[in-house]
């Protein structure tokens, strides 16, 4: 059982397998209902986020492969053109947080990057943000991306793993080469500069999750799989 074509390809490359046994069931996520502007402003005030800030949020634990290095380098480029941008980094330290903090200090962008640690209110953070950024260098199939799309956020992510199966480049966000801070920065700047495009892409992403990546769809496909197996199906 795999949750993306990318994962299937990885299994085929690295493990013994019989192709007839593969089943693909995409992950599903719960809907995240949008907030009113007053709700957004109330949350931002509580968190000390300026009301006029352009908030780009990343939800990812600090593993080496998650690409925080490229995100910081991109941020250092972006703050020159968008001094009111704020990058929120959500996630626990899994080995690279201190190195990421040090890189932020080296680039002199401490005022534009905030480390918020592990949070239990990630849906609220997403609803109060303008853009989701995901610089990970490898992915199987990212629930974080699906949740961001469910919250109506356009996504800038690397063109790796299962990301192209979730994000439609130019429709629900932008896909860029991995380990390329310049390309990542350019895609983020494109969306920061165009609120209309952000809104259109965000709504397209929300609709895509509703139609293709809902929990109901995932559960239904899982039930069908078990039912077919109980009847001796393949």
Keywords:
10 helices; alpha/beta; 6-stranded parallel sheet; 234 residues; 12% strand; 47% helix; 6 strands
Instruction: Give the tally of β-strands.
Output: 6
Order of helices and strands: HHEHEHEHEHEHEHHH
Distance between the termini: 12 Å
**Shape summary:** globular
| Order of strands in the sheet with most strands | 3-2-1-4-5-6
Strand content: 5-15%
Describe this structure in words.
This protein is α/β, with parallel strands linked by helices and about 230 residues long. Helix content is about 45%, strand content about 10%. It contains 10 helices and 6 strands, in the order H-H-E-H-E-H-E-H-E-H-E-H-E-H-H-H. It has helices at about 5-15, 35-45, 70-80, 95-105, 120-125, 145-150, 165, 180-190, 195-210, 215-230; strands at about 55-60, 85-90, 115, 130-135, 155-160, 175. A 6-stranded parallel β-sheet has the order 3-2-1-4-5-6, with helices on both faces. Helix 6 (about 145-150) links the parallel strand 4 (about 130-135) and strand 5 (about 155-160). Helix 3 runs parallel beside helix 4 and helix 3 (about 70-80) packs across helix 8. The radius of gyration is 19 Å and the shape is globular. The mean pLDDT is about 95.
């Amino acid at each position: 059982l795999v949750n993306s074509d990318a994962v299937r390809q990885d299994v085929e490359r690295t493990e013994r397998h019989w192709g007839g046994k593969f089943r693909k069931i995409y992950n599903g996520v719960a809907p995240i209902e949008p907030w009113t502007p007053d709700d957004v402003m109330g949350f931002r005030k509580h968190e000390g986020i300026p009301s006029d800030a352009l908030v780009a949020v990343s939800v990812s634990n600090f593993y080496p492969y998650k690409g925080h290095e490229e995100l910081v380098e991109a941020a250092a480029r972006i703050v020159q053109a968008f001094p009111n941008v704020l990058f929120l980094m959500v996630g626990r330290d899994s080995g690279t947080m201190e190195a990421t903090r040090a890189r932020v200090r080296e680039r002199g962008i401490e005022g534009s990057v905030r480390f918020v640690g592990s949070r239990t209110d990630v849906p609220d953070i997403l609803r109060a943000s303008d853009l989701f950024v995901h610089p990970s260098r490898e992915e199987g199939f990212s629930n974080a991306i699906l949740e961001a799309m469910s919250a109506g956020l356009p996504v800038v992510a690397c063109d790796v793993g299962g990301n192209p199966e979730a994000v439609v480049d130019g429709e629900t966000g932008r896909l860029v080469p991995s380990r390329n801070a310049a390309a990542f920065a350019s895609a983020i700047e494109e969306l920061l500069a165009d609120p209309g495009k952000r809104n259109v892409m965000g709504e397209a992403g929300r609709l895509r999750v509703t139609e293709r990546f809902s929990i109901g769809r995932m559960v239904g496909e899982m039930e069908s799989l078990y039912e077919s197996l109980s009847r001796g199906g393949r």
